[in-house]
């Protein structure tokens, strides 16, 4: 049984994330936990907002969450799936972390943006904040209006600077096993050749993936790593990008680039981010 957490603010983007998760795990026994944060962003700084209004918005959020889950359960025809609601008055990142720990969550699936201006949700930068702060669970970021595409081709960028343990590689394996996918390991080649340590880590990664179809691809460094990855995604028709988020990692470097909007802020394909 998988436990999947899906934050929602009832926007179309949040619905897209729900639909993607349902399709991704169509053949897996799953409980989908639909999370809504009723946390209000600093209402004291907005003199026109009264406590009554804040309470009203929170109550409406609770009602909508329960209605959403009720509709999902009624509409559901998959005997492997069921839906539960979680309502939390904490900041979204805290609500997610709390929900992950209390419900043994395996994956978080979320959109890149929401439409609720007054409620703490993923207004772009919030997605980045969650990626940075959530260290206990892998996150799948789903693009706006994304139609489900079977993730047959998976890209996994790495600089081979460290070895990956079983826990870090497990989410990649888990998704790969669902559809017998092919993993394309990308190394953005800055040095021209690998060091002895990089060669060693490359060999360890090969051992991790030896039960899967995988290949190594070396691409030139053009100073904007996210651009290099984007080009690779288009050329090889990649369906899912997988990245491990650790200190000084490739994704950490990309998070410093303005072009991050193209990869995580406004991704063209879903992105699976695995915490260290």
From TrEMBL:
Could you tell me the superkingdom of the organism this chain comes from? Bacteria
Family annotation (Gene3D superfamilies): HUPs
Where is each UspA domain found?
1-143
Q: Which InterPro entries match?
A: Rossmann-like_a/b/a_fold, Universal_stress_UspA, UspA
Q: What Pfam families does the record tag this protein with?
A: Usp (PF00582)
Span-the-membrane segments of this chain are none
PANTHER family in UniProt:
STRESS RESPONSE PROTEIN NHAX, UNIVERSAL STRESS PROTEIN UP12
Q: Indicate the family of this protein.
A: Belongs to the universal stress protein A family.
Record protein name field: Universal stress protein
Q: From which source organism is this entry?
A: Aureibaculum marinum
> What are the top taxonomic ranks of the organism?
Bacteria, Pseudomonadati, Bacteroidota, Flavobacteriia, Flavobacteriales
